[in-house]
Amino acid sequence: MTIKDLKATFRKERLAARDLISEETRTEFSLAIAEHGGDAFDFEPGTIISGFLPIRSEADIRPLMARLKARGARLCLPVVLDKMTIVFRELATGVELVDTGFGTRGPGPEAAVLDPEILLVPLSAFDRNGHRIGYGAGHYDRAIARLMQKGREPRLVGIAFDCQEVAEVPTEPHDVRLQAILTESGYRQF
Asked: Quick one: which residues bind substrate (predicted)?
């Protein structure tokens, strides 16, 4: 079995486990994520933090993003431009959200494009060493690579539920480790 096959298997299994979490429990877990993550990491006011709006059975991190904004963060959301590229558009009060691809919503083209310093990253699976498996399209891998090419070193915080953890994620040369993971049971740094 190849690394890609192993990742696909983990992705399918962990997303199926996440899908089994009831909506009520997912809401409770999402609020716990906000509680654990609201003050978990330091940043200066004005720091650009990328969040995301939930799709499918992902954690709803809007309460977490509200707490980070209250602490002075400048928020943005990922927007799919084409099958290969995402950019991060500023999420400002009163900005209308539009369909942005892959079932997501975000600020429209009039919003400023920002380079986040901290990325809250959705994922399919993760391990205790900070390795992650995304959804398979490579959007975040390419976005992180572009930020690094610009001389940026974004802090990567994975967002998941405990049921998405696996013993060991198989890695490839392009994979970038998370610095931390935030789940309903707490914030862990790697």
From this structure: 53, 58
Q: Was 137 annotated as part of a binding site?
A: yes
How far is Cα 18 from Cα 124, in angstroms, rounded to an integer? 9
Enumerate the domain spans of the chain: 3-189
User: Using one digit for the tens of pLDDT, what is the confidence trace for 59-113?
Assistant: 999 999 999 999 999 999 999 888 778 899 999 988 889 988 777 899 999 999 9
The reply to whether 15 sits in an annotated binding site is no
Residue 56 assigned to a binding site: no
| Nearest alpha carbon to residue 156 among 185, 127, 182 | 182
155 annotated ligand binder: no
Which CATH architecture describes the domain 3-189? 3-Layer(aba) Sandwich (3.40)
Asked if residue 73 belongs to a known ligand binding site, the reply is no
> Across the chain, what does the average pLDDT equal?
94
Q: Would the annotation count 187 as a binding residue?
A: no
108 is in an annotated binding site: no
